[in-house]
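2024-03-11 09:14:02 INFO queue: dequeued item Cytochrome c oxidase accessory protein CcoG, len=461
2024-03-11 09:14:02 INFO validating residues
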Amino acid sequence: MNAPQPQVIKMYAAREEIYPREIDGRYARLRWLFVWLTQLAFYCTPWLQWNGRQALLFDLGARKFYIFGLVLWPQDFIYLAALLIISAYLLFLATAIAGRVWCGFTCPQTVYTEIFLWIERRIEGKRSARIALARQPWSLNKFGRKGAKHLAWGAVALWTGFTFVGYFTPIQQLLGEVATLNFGPWEWFWVLFYSFATYGNAGWMREQVCKYMCPYARFQSSMFDRDTLIITYDARRGEPRGPLSKTSNGNGGSCIDCSLCVQVCPTGIDIRKGLQYECIGCAACVDACNTVMDKTGQPRGLIRYSTERAMDEHLTPTEIRRRATRPRVRIYTAVLGLIVLATSGALYLRMPLKLDVIRDRGSMGREVEDGMIENVYRLQIMNTSEQAHVYKITVGGMDTLAQVTPDLVRVEATETKAYPIRLRAAHGAGKPGSNRINVALEAVDDASLHVKESAVFIVPR
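2024-03-11 09:14:37 INFO prediction written
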């Protein structure tokens, strides 16, 4: 008696390779416009100079963030938090109005996948040629084409990783280290890691990132409503599907079932089945369908940007635009405006001077010559501007309180300086124990640069 054959249960469906077809149209050109804009900004910004330094540099070693004319320190972390909040609200607002436009046009995964696909098409050919090449046995021609493609992908990925690290290490210095490969350990790690991530995500994983790794695809529905613009298929007009002969005779819908909308989709879905979480809103299917409608002499818009309410109630474009300013959108806009206004005001009023007064705990209040009481402090002065200043130190809050050390100190541009001072007061000027005092700094050349901090003066009991 033969033993029963073991049954294999697959818990994960094997991936079907997707070969998106190239399409031209309004949204394809718009998508490439954003590719150019985002990549010109990404690759060119590190090379911009400002006041003799890199315009945009996040110098983690020196703990200074240079953003054109603005220098931020770790104490300014609140501005980074505000920037993240603003970005989140912008995403929520854009999603509530127009669905996944971020994913379809400006997401780095979409942008680099588009670039890598362009390289693939230039080397391996159109969709049918790429499919045929993949099915062929290995040969010199196949090896050459595949090898050239991966070399081109690798070059783009390495330059991307190099540019990314150039935001944290001065890129001109980094370029000088390329010839000798004299990178530091963390520079080696991040150049190779970011290059590998770009190569793997845009070259190999592609739609898998959007389907399974990106959390945005999973919770986007919570930001949608019946008035959110999404990619829609007009089933009333398109069904029943059939070949062009039936459509021409009036026996079928406008959809001729050519499947071009599926062939151009970067995630491989059929938009005619309705909105799916895999749809990234790139509108490639809209361009493809409009091309078919033009060729068959039918009106455009079988697949189009519309809303669920517009499809059900046959709203006009004017009515769709009017519904865009619904309460949810107004709330998002109001909150976003308040946050932007508050952040802009805080940055405008931000004082490019910081002071910490630290009392020397190893030297408590002591009596010195002439019966004076002396306390020692260390002033931690941070000049966050890009101009050197001389500051005058003044103290107050207690009778007869005076400085023994010089009251002028020079702090270079974007420098943190520790400056010790000694303060004395006459015996009996304050109560025994702690006495509140204040220490103030004011720039000699600019009276608007001033700051005051409180401290404690100890009088021995």
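2024-03-11 09:14:37 INFO annotate: The chain is about 45% helix and 20% strand.
2024-03-11 09:14:38 INFO item closed
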